[in-house]
Write a structure and sequence with these properties.
With 72 residues, the protein is an alpha+beta fold. The chain has helices at residues 2-18, 47-62, and strands at 21-29, 32-39, 68-71.
């Protein structure tokens, strides 16, 4: 599962990096994905939006077994 999640994150990563941010996979357990937002994404007021509307949406679309994405 971890490899599948990394693959989806690799597809998202270029758009985050274009804005000065990035995402790092921390853990995948029972459908819960934990990520660490990096770079400008860390302190951005829109980080929650990015987490839910971009990262979580993409993961759930490609991997329906994903229940939630959390920032740690």
């Amino acid at each position: 599962m971890r490899e599948k999640v990394e693959s989806v994150l690799d597809q998202i990563r270029p758009s985050l990096q274009a804005d000065g941010g990035d995402v790092e996979l921390v853990d995948v357990t029972e459908g819960i994905v934990k990520v660490k937002l990096k770079g400008i994404c860390r302190g951005c007021p829109f980080s929650t939006l990015t987490l839910k509307q971009v990262i979580e949406h993409a993961l759930k679309e490609k991997l329906p077994e994903i229940k939630e994405v959390l920032s740690v």
